[in-house]
Predict the structure.
Amino acid sequence: MSAGTEPSSVVLAIEGVTKVYPGTMALKGVDFLVHRGAVNVLVGENGAGKSTLMKIIAGVERPTEGRIVIEGEPVQFAGTDDAVRNGIGMVFQELNLFPNLSVAENVFASREITRGLRGIDHAEQERQTAILLRRLEHDIDPKTLVADLAIGQQQIVEIAKALAQDARILIMDEPTSALSAVEVEILFRVIAELKAQGVAIIYISHRLEELVRIGDYITVLRDGRITGHEKMGTIDVRWIVRQMIGSDAKDFARAESAVEEREVFRAEAISLPRRSGGYLVDHVSLDVRAGEILGIYGLMGAGRSELLDCLMGRHTHARGEIFIEGVRVAERDVTGRIERGLALIPEDRQREGLVQVLSIAANMTLASLKSFTRHIHIDARREREAVRHFIRDLAMKAPDPDREVSSMSGGNQQKVVIAKALMTGPKVLLMDEPSRGIDVGAKADVFRTMRRLAAEGLGIIFVTSDLDEVMALSDRIAVMSNGRLTGLFARADATEDKVVAASAAGHGIDRPQSSLESTQ
Amino acid sequence: MNLTEWLERNRWVWSLLGVVVLWAILSVATSRFSLHSLSGVAASASFLVLVALGQMLVVTTGRGNIDLSIASVLTLSAYASIVVTQGLDARLPLAFGAVVLIGLVTGAVNALLVVAVRIPAIIATLATGYILATGTLIANRWAAGFGMSPLLKTLAAGRIGGFPVMLLVALLAVVLVGLLLRRTVYGRAISAVGQNERAAALAGIRTGRVVASAFIASAVMAALTGMLLGAYVGGAFLEMGAPYLLQSLGAVVLGGSLIFGGSSTALGTLFGSLLLVLIVTTMQIVGLPPGTQDIVQGLVVIAVLALAGGQAVRRRRSRASPA
């Protein structure tokens, strides 16, 4: 070892990796170090580039620029099997197991131990699987069908599968998302054991409490760039949130608040049970006045989108009551709730907002066709007039409304979705991430439209992960964390610190004060 | 709007073009082929048009929905019509009622299995078709010896000034279904459901009802066709519905409807039916054995689907890139 180089604990280094997809740059010159015998946490909001980075490490994708260095040796992965040969294992968010096969058969799937013509050597597979499971301190019979295991145990099998391939670097993508609290504890013990055995773990999660607890190093990704890389002891949850969200100048079309006294919407004890126990939305109650914009802030997985879905009637097993203008809404399905004056602008525009083969005009009127119907046919003239009105109203760029909606830009598509909702004549507008994936100009248009609609007396509930956005647009800010409402602030006394603190409530940051001071 | 865009939106033009070209070739190549023989082709295509319109509605609802029970519905209805009318015009309304009932019940069962029980349509309708086939075996014993109602015979096989009455019926159906698709809420809804069920549901469309209605419409259309076809050929026989299974799909596909659902035109199905029957006629003129004719029909459907599938993939790619 040459003088001056400290003995490196780095087992894997990503150096200057850039990944370009047609039209987008998913990663921009990313440097990422993975330390041996440590939990290397990777965080970032959706679309920050985490999955792309993981795909590159796992050999699924190849970097456009930059290189991968393992134990000081540059390597190139032609495919996933190359990565596996280099000791990289991955435990996917959705478990990739065959429920109809036994534990041992899963662990050795596609790499079966065979005895020539006599077929698979089940006894040997089961013996080796048993050794692995014991190493993970789990007493699961290798002959058990995976379908008969609890989710937490299935996760252990997934890990065993990776270890069976001599994984020295284990990628875990949201491993706790489906686990109960007890199962999470067990998983953490397993992770600690793996660490002690020198395995490097890359840990991806949106649950900040976990990251702070088990992470040794943390790397934050935002918009394809690394915005922070620290040892875990030196930082706190607020630091993470800051690096994740960042702040860039935006035009929010600030305006006078138009809030009236009249309550237009109220939700009482909205709950959505999770299949594995607990709640995705945990008894959330809130109200909106006419002309009010209520912003719902929270981190990924806080249950915000699920709340809107419940309000709209998309989950048949959701509980709780909603009231529009003080009257209880008995309808529990989407069709009924649209008629009562609710409209939802979904987060996933492509999959839930638009029908691609239909024209721009047909998409706009899809939810309100009944109002253009005379006898049994659609009054084409009235439909065209309404479409033209909303194109003007929302400043859409749509020279020919008869063209397919897929010919438009993202921002204009979003306006089509908004127009569709508005054409139903709603009293309350639910907007899920209304500014996601659209350019700055269109964003400003969308924000202006929200302000104007509120001024016209609509109640608006909007969900966002953008701190600046929620601060600037909302008359009141509701904050969710772990499915619960953890904060409700009037615009006047909402500060970024309070909102961020509420969004991390229950994320185990009862020690931020001290660590905050230590970083100063 | 440029030509490629217009063609993309009006895919039925290709089947019309096919009809014209094939007819022109036949006219030149064989002296026997004339305008009169084209009207013969049109008459037999008319039955296919009716069945195919129903099939088209089902295909339009997407998710791989398809109605394989039509062959049995058609055959059973032909028998039912003959058994009930017993050759008497007076009993025609009763027969009509019975036939429509067969269609409604079969369609409702198909819809129930597909929408409520969530069985893939390809299996659900295959199974109901098999059950009905047993019904035709029983009906086959009763139906012997009955004549045909003269009125029904006129409707199915008659001509007005050389123009087949049946073609008028088919054209009327095309116009009605065309208006339904283009001008009504239902037409928009079925297209939306076929393309993006989640978005349709979120727009307040009761997607289950839309899909169910398509299955019911398909079965009723097949039932009515069976009644008319029985009168046209002057009786019922066990295999009479069989050719319509592949042909109805062939007509839908040739007519430019997307097999993945969401985009169909009644006009396309009309020309698709004509083209398919013309192809069959051509093969008969050339003197190909029936087995070979079936092979060619199958190949035509596969070729069109392969072309359309490739096109769909290319379109998606070209769209994904400029994001």
